[in-house]
Amino acid sequence: MRHRALRRLSAVAVIMLFASPASAGSIIATPGISAPAAGFLECRVANVSDSDSIQVAFKIYTVTGSVTVNASGTILPHHSFGSGTTTITASHCEVEVVKGGKKKARVSLTAFNSAGNIVTAVVGQ
C-alpha cells in the first residue's frame, strides 16, 4: 500500500512538471526577501547576450500578492535595467522575457538599508 502511494505521488509530480503553461517558460522569479525599515528593494534584469537586445516586463509583488512595481523595457547587450520600491511589504520579483530569450536574462532582487548599503540579495530562476 505504501509503495503504491509513493508511486502515485511520483506520477503526480511528473505530471505537474510537464503540465506547466507554455508562457511559464519565459518567467524568471526570485525568492522572497524583505527590506529593512526605511530601506528598499530593487529588482534588476541584466542582458548577458553579446549581440541581441531583450525585451522584459517585470513586477515586484507584496507579501499579499499585490503589484507594487510594474515596469518594462528593452535592454541592450551587456546592460541592465532595474526598478525599486520602498514598500516595506514588498516580497519578490517576477520577470517575463517578452522577446529575446530567457537564457540571455539574469535577474536579481536586492534589499538595501536606509544608507543605501546592500543587506541581502537573491537571484531569480
Topology:
Blueprint: H1 2-18, E1 27-29, E2 40-47, E3 54-62, E4 67-75, E5 80-85, E6 90-99, E7 105-112, E8 118-123
Short description, anyone?
By secondary structure, this protein is mainly beta. Helix content is 14%, strand content 47%. A 4-stranded antiparallel beta sheet has the order 1-6-3-4, with no helix packed on it. Strands 5-2-7-8 form a 4-stranded antiparallel beta sheet, with no helix packed on it.
Please report the total strand number as a whole number. 8
Helix and strand element order: HEEEEEEEE
The domain count comes to 1
Q: C-alpha Rg, in Å?
A: 17 Å
Shape: globular
| Sheet having the most strands | 4 strands, antiparallel
CATH architecture: Sandwich
Give the low-confidence spans: 1-24
Mean pLDDT: 82
Number of helices: 1
Name of the top-level CATH class: Mainly Beta
Strand order of the largest sheet: 1-6-3-4
Explain the overall architecture:
- By secondary structure, this protein is mainly beta.
- It has a single domain, classed as TM1070-like (Hypothetical Protein Tm1070, Chain: A, Sandwich), CATH 2.60.290.
- It is built from one helix and eight strands, in the order αββββββββ.
- It has a four-stranded antiparallel beta sheet with strand order 1-6-3-4, with no helix packed on it. The protein has a four-stranded antiparallel beta sheet with strand order 5-2-7-8, with no helix packed on it.
- The longest helix is centred in the N-terminal third of the chain and has 17 residues, at 2-18.
- The model is unreliable at 1-24 (pLDDT under 50).
